[in-house]
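Is this the right way to post structure tokens for a design question? Let me know if I should format differently. Anyway, here goes:
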């Protein structure tokens, strides 16, 4: 069995943003040479997420509105965590959206359903962030 590991780095210019990383993950799969197996993709920060969904701007807007209702950024004083950093809402948003995805690899391709894409969700940006891609298989 072969293994492959790569870290992707993102510099997000805003506090919150959803980024389609499917192409970068597919590049990793091609580099790995693995044709059959499993691909893990996870955020390496507790205020960021990796998830699978549709790449549709209206849906992305709906996520932003929904997440802000569930865990509003402000007022900062509503959270006990806030002190050194005002990012408690980002921790909660990450928990809701999830840490990682696992995708089957079949015939050297990501074995997706219709419209599925991989996204990096940033909820406390403005500094470099990392995503891990780990692939195992043959």
């Amino acid at each position: 069995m072969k293994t492959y590991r790569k870290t992707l780095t993102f510099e997000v210019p805003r506090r919150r943003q959803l980024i389609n990383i499917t192409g970068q993950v597919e590049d990793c799969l091609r580099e790995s040479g693995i044709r059959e197996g499993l691909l893990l993709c996870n955020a390496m920060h507790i205020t960021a997420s990796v998830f699978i969904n549709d790449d549709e701007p209206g849906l992305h807007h709906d996520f932003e509105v929904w997440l802000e209702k569930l865990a509003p950024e402000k007022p900062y004083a509503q959270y006990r965590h806030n002190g050194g950093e005002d990012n408690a809402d980002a921790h909660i948003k990450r928990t809701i959206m999830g840490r990682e995805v696992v995708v089957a690899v079949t015939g050297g391709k990501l074995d997706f359903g219709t419209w599925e894409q991989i996204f990096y969700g940033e909820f406390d940006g403005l500094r470099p962030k990392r995503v891990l891609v780990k692939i195992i298989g043959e």
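Format looks fine. Someone answered above. Worth noting: The chain has a mean pLDDT of 96. The domain at 2-137 is CATH 2.60.120.460 (Jelly Rolls).
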